[in-house]
Amino acid sequence: MSLHFFSAAFRPEGEAERQRAVEALPPIAPDDPVLRELLEEVRRVLCTPIAMLTVTDGEIQRMVGALGVEPVVLPRAIAFCAHTIAAADGMMSVPDLRLDPRFSANPLVTGGPRARYYTGVVVRNGAFPVGALCGLDQRPHGPASFRQRAQMRRLAEAVAEHIGAVDSRD
To answer: What are phi and psi of 98, to 5 degrees?
Structure first.
């Protein structure tokens, strides 16, 4: 018998302030047509069948908007988006999750939904990363291109504005 481990994400600096920013978010309607169109754009940009808006709230990750998958609540420890919100540049792209030692034994990779590709970018409320806008696929992709990364950042800003997150530049 062999044991396999995956890496849970580090907590971003200022976790208590980040959690307060999550709690300050207004309610997000999952059937919002503007949010749905933004998620459709994520699918087009990344060429993925799945697009999600997630919020990392305490020890859980909530899918507050999703296309291509039923929204669920996941433990933060297994959520790819928890890595994204902790990333220094606020973005993470993994061409093949099975080949990345952080994720190869993750139950989302080894079991359902058998995720293979992930690209996500932080959604901020003010200065704090409260969640992520991401795309997933069950097949590997190449790394996200410079253009895809720029488009995802633009979409994350549009999502933050739409859901009523406070702009830190005000």
So the answer is: -70, -25
